[in-house]
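Field: COMPLEX_INPUT
Field: COMPONENT_COUNT = two
Field: RESIDUE_TOTAL = 261
Field: MODE = joint
Values follow.
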Amino acid sequence: MSREDIDTNRAVRSVLVRHWLNLGLLTVRTFSGRTTLRGDLVRMDGFKEPLTSAIVEAILGEIRRLPSVRHLNVQVENWVQSGGRWLPRDTDPGSGVERTVYRDASQDVVGGIMPSDSEKESGGA
Amino acid sequence: MRKILAIDDEPPVLRCLETVLESRGYKLEVFDDPVEGLRKAKEDPDVVLLLLDVKMPGMNGFDLYKDLLRSRQMPVLFVTAYPRSFNAKSEDVAHMWQEHFAAGTTDILYKPFDLEVLFEKVEGLIGPADEEDSDP
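Field: COMPLEX_OUTPUT
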């Protein structure tokens, strides 16, 4: 990964931020000008305008037009390309597709490497 | 060796970050005291990335971030268990988002996290540990 690739990641994140996308649900990686966007395309919490196909296409188009992006590989889980358009992925129970769960530790029990969330919730800033 | 500074009030999280990122070749310096960590981040020119918790007693991560940016620019990865801390309805967060996040040098990682995602986020911000020439 070159300095230019890191600069490309930065430029891509900048596009995502300008469109109020939730960075915590996405990863951006670039190698030799080939950028991969992985995760879920979701608006930042509290942002009232929902994502639409047109907006997703505009965002991806903006990323593709960055001079240092030679190729964009979109591996998002909650949007799917169909007939040349980006559409929200079907989340019907029978579809076999699961949307990534958007978790908030203040509302559930968290394990893994965060053993003391409950303490934090009661005493944290 | 690229030095990463991590600030989190939970020592187990710091130990985890230290162990896994050092195994990838980064040098970690960890602080469970946000004020001490901020001082170090401001003063140590070798630090190339800050891993920063949001909710901490004494000083929250957003205030620390804004204070740091008044002294120096540095990539920051917020590591938080509270996704809703980043809420566009908050005037403070919205301002920070537009003024600072828009530069593209800040990213967010939600706890609990996948190690692969941690590596991707860190490498996406500063590059692999073994590529000295890609220091941002």
